[in-house]
Amino acid sequence: MNVGGFISQLLQVLIALALAPLLVGWVNQCRAWLQNKSAPSLLLPYRTIHKLFIKDAVVADTASPIFRIAPYIVFGAMCCAAAIVPSLATDLPFASAADAIALVGLFALARVFVALAAMDTGTAFGSLGARREMFIGFLAEPALLMVLFTASLISGSTSLPTIVDTLAHREFAIYPSLAFAGVAFTMVSLAENARVPVDNPATHLELTMIHEAMILEYSARHLALIEWASAMKLFNYSCIGLALFFPFGIASGGDWLGVVGAAPTLVAKLAIGGFALALIETLSAKMRIFRAPEFLGTAFLLAVLGMLVNLLLGS
Amino acid sequence: MNLSALGISPATVPAAMQARRYAVDPMQLLAACRVAWEQGGQLVALWASDDSDRGRGLTLHVVLRDADGLTLLEHPCPDAHTQYPDLAAIFPAAARMQRAAYDLAGLQAAAEDHRPWIRHASSPDDRFPLRRDFATSTQWPSGPEDYRFVKVEGDGVHEIAVGPVHAGIIEPGHFRLQVVGEKVLRLEERLGYTHKGIEKRFENMPIAEGCALAGRVSGDSTVTYAWAYAQAAEALTTTDVPPRATWLRALLLERERIASHLGDLGALGNDGGFAFGLAQFSRLREEVLRRNAGAFGHRLLMDRVVPGGVSCDVGDDDAMAMRAQCAYLTREIGVLRDIYDEHAGLQDRFRLCGIVTPALARTLGMTGMAARASGVAQDLRCDYPVAPYDKLAVRLITHNEGDVAARVAVRFDEVLESLRLVAVILDAMPAGDIAVPLRDAQAYRVAIGYVEGWRGPVLVALESGPGNRIRRCHPHDPSWQNWPVIEHAVIGNIVPDFPLINKSFNLSYSGHDL
User: Fold this and answer.
1) What does pTM read for this prediction?
2) What angle do CA B246, B250, B255 make, to 5 degrees?
3) Structural domain range at position B419
C-alpha cells in the first residue's frame, strides 16, 4: 500500500459521503421539474440529516439492541461499499480485500439488518415491510450477481478495479453483452433503491410501503444514519453502473491528483444518471407488488442473455 | 311506494321532490321495509330523536327511496327500554345507523351487534347526547377502549392495524385487516374519531343560521349540504326561491363536483405511484378554485348557498371567464384522460382492483358516484330533477365493471358532463333576484332536503321547534351506505391495493361521524 493509494481511497469515501445526499437532492429536484412543480432545494437532504442528528431519539420499549445497532451496521456497510466501488480511481488498496461478490454480500448484510430491526419492534408495518424487502431482495440479488459476472467474464476477474480497468482501456466499441447487462442493472437498481416502479420513496400510504415501512419506528440520529445510508446506497449503485458501463474518466494510477481530476467527470455523469432516474420515475406508475417477480425475473433473464452472448459470441 | 296494503295512510312531507310520511308500529315498520326492498327501494337514512319534552318518548325515523320518491317512516317508542325491530336483515346498511342511533339517542334495535359505533371510550354507557336532558357542557374522563374486532383464525393469518393516525395528513379512521401474506381475508372499519356533536349543535339554532353549520358537516361537500339544508328550510317555511338562485345553486354544485373529481383523479394517479397525474390534476383543480374565489369570493364555495337563495351573483366578466375555463378544462382533461388510459402501469393497478359487482352493490344499498361505477343507475339530478335540473337533461353516467378503473371512468365522464352543464347554466340562467328572506316556520313540522353531491345524495331532515328554531336536524352523508361496501370490495385483494381502493371511493369521515 502506498501513500497515494491511501489518499485516493480516503478521498473516494469522503466524496461518497459528501455527494450522496446531493445526488438524492438532485433526483428530487429533477422529479419536481418533470412534474411541473417548483423544486425543493438541492441541499434539502443535508438539512434533513442535520435536523435529524440534533433531535432526541425515541426508541420503542420493546426494541432490543439489534434495533439500536442496525443503523450503524447499515451505514458502515455502505461506507465499506463506497471504498470498494471504483468511482474515482481503480488503484484502491482496500478494493483487493473484497471483490464484486463480496460487494453484493455487503448490500445483503445491510438489508438483513434493516429487516431484522424492522421486525424487532413487533409492529405490523415493520414485519410487513421486512417481508416485502426480503421478497424483493431474493429476486434482485441473483440478477445483480449475473450482471457482475457478465462484466467479470470480459475481464476475467471478479475484482472490481480490474474489471473497470479492462473495460476502460479497451478500444471503443459497443458490446452487446454489456448492453443486456446494462438494462438488467438499471432494473435491479430501481428495485434495490426502493424507487418507482417497485417502491415509492415519496408515498404517505403506509400499507404500500416497502423500505419506508421498515424504518417507520426510527427517529433522530438513527433515522439520519439510515437516510444517509440510503443516499449512499443510491450513490454506490450509480457508481457501479457508471464504472461498468461508462468507465471513461476514472483515474487508473495511484496518483491522488488524478483522483481529484476524476471528480468533475463523476459529478457530471451522476447528474445525467440522476436525471435519467427521475425521468424513469416520472414516467412509471408503481407496479403491484406481485409484478415485482416478473420485473426482476426479466432483469435476471437479460443478465443471463448478456452472459450467454459473451460466452457464445465472445463479444 | 305503495304501502296501502299495510292499512296506513300517508301525510305529505314538505320537500323538493315527492315525499310521504307514515306513522308505523313495529310490524308495519318491518313490513314497509320489506315491501320497499321487494320494489327495488333503498334505505336512505335512519336516526332517532328524543320527543320526551312533548310527552312521546323516543322516535325512530327511517327514510326509504324508490322510483316514486321518498318515504319517511316514523316509529314512536314509548320509552328507552323498548327495542325496535332490526332492519339490517333487509337493508345491511342499517346496521351501523342503528348502532349510531343508540350511541347518540339511546334507542336500541333488537339486533345482535350492540358494540358502540360513534361513541368511543370517552363517553359513559348511560349518557346519550341527543337526549333532551343532556347538557352540552358535560365532561368526563376517558375510559379504557374495549372494542372487539372480528378475528380470523388459522395458519399464517395475521392482523394489521392501520390508523386512526396515518402516515399522511388525512382524516382519522381505523382499519383492521386480517391477512395471509399479502392477501386480505377481512377488513373491519372503526370510525367515529371525528365525532364533534353536530346534531346536538343544531338543536335550538335559528333555522336561518343552521345552513352555515350544515355547510361544515363535510367541507368537501359544502355546497351539497348547504343546498340540502336550504331545501329543507325552504320547504319548512314554504319560501319560494327566485329562479335565478336555483340556477346559481346548480352552478355552484357543478363547480364543486368538478373541483372534487379533479382532486380525486390526481390523488388516484398518485396512489398508483404516478405522481405526474397528481401534479397535473392539482394544477387544474387549483385553477377551478381560483376562479371560484374570483367569481364567488370563496375557493370552496362555503356559505354561498343560503336559505332563501344564494349570497353571490355572477357578473358578465366572470361568466365569460368561466365559459373559457370550461373549454380549456375540457381540452386538458381529454389529454390527461388519454395519458391515464394508455398508461399500462397505471391501468394494471386500476383494472380488476376492488371490484364491487352490480349485484353486491344492490344488496348492500350502495349509493352515489361509486355505485354508478357498479351499474347502479341512480342520480337525483336525473331521477327527481328539481329546478333547474328539470331543464338541464343531465346525462346519467354508469359503468358496470365496479373496479377502481370504473370509478375513475365515472369521475372522468362526470367531470366532463359537469363542465358541459356549467356552460349551459351560464347561457340559460334567467335574470332576477338571487335571494328572498326566509318566512316563518310553523313549530313541530318536518321537511326534507335531498341533493346529489359529487360523492352521492346528501339528505337533510329538519324539524322545526317553536320560535323559528331547529328542534332536530339530521344530516345524512352517502358515506354511511358506502363505508361497509369497502369492507367487501377489498376482500381477496392484496394489502398495498387497499389505499387505492379506499381512495377510489373517497368517502367522508367527518360527514359520517358527525
Assistant:
1) 0.91
2) 150
3) 198-513
